[in-house]
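re: that chain from earlier
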Amino acid sequence: MRILQVAHGFPPRENAGTERYAFTLARALRDRGHVVHTFTATIDPALPMYTVLREEHVTRVVNNTPGRESRHGARDAQVDAIFERERTRFAPDVVHIQHVMGLSASLPLGGVKAMLTLHDAWGWCAAGGTLLPPGANTPCDGPNAGCAACASTWQRDTPGVDRALGLAGRIGAVVDPARLHRAWKRLPPGFRARVVGGAPRALTEDQVAARSAGLRALARSCRVISPSQWLAVEAERQGLGPVRVVPHGVAAAVRRAPPGPDAPLVFIGTLAWHKGPDLVREAWGRTAGVAPLRIYGPPGPDPAFQVVSDGVLNPDGVLNVLRGARALVLGSRWPENAPLVILEARSVGCPVIAPRIGGIPELVDDGVDGHLYRAGDVEDLVRALLRPLPATVTPPRTFDAHVDAVLAEYR
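^ sequence. v structure.
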């Protein structure tokens, strides 16, 4: 089969959970003899908007303001035109859409059969699919009269962004763009926040409604699957059509030896408010040193949100850290769908301490694989951190079984 995959980011440039899942699926499908190409967005302020970067098995489209398409009903005509050229050139049997953030909800499929995997509430939440109002510890119930104000804050689409991009474009004419991009990332987050600061451009309720309508139309043109029952039910409630549940899996991993007395607690994830690394650090600080704490992850989209990181891990590094950890601790304030890192932890025998929210309870059997606590509740997380941890956890579904299920959906 010839499979054209669509994602909002792709390794090695982007390495969050959905991006790593897309990479792993593409590699597994190629290992089975299928031909897979990925069409993806990327952020590179040193390059002009809509620059096309071609690599082996990957086409990247530069979009330095990935929230802007929400002002146009989640549609971007220039991305659509580039996608149509790539689709025509590749001639796929099936298009598998992982995410369209930074791309377009009106991708011209040209009559090709398409499947959409839901990874979050992006289809009905313009605040990055998080369902989390700015500064809130708990998510909202879904679309309401405050969506436009919430989404405008999340996008951080400001005049400062335009100025920064213009300056980067001029410098990029004489400095290697990749080198310039790395230099920007090394600047202190607070400084970057000042450079791109200013009042966000406000979205209207009509624009948010048009965005949701465009994403619903995309979903209804596809076969839709979800890794969790929770997200499937929510998507159907929001009008995205029938959704089939296809649970994720992970590759079999070497099980770890029992951790030593100094084994740390670890947080692994994007350092963003909705992921709650600050909540994990606060709760840990109230445990009187039950164990060391290590926080790993890249900075999130808001440079003003600052949490000190112990580094960014590649996939092998994630497994190595989890093998030596006392437990994986998640602080998610938003209703996560099916965090890949939970399956990775279980694959090496690492207990998980995570909030009881979204699809997480489908992945963590409370008291068996670790402990669940009330999302956003620091005191309940402290109690979970102080409870004895299980000596063993149940292995997750294998990735081979997941690929079998995906291929069945394609067919």
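The two ends are 10 Å apart (CA to CA).
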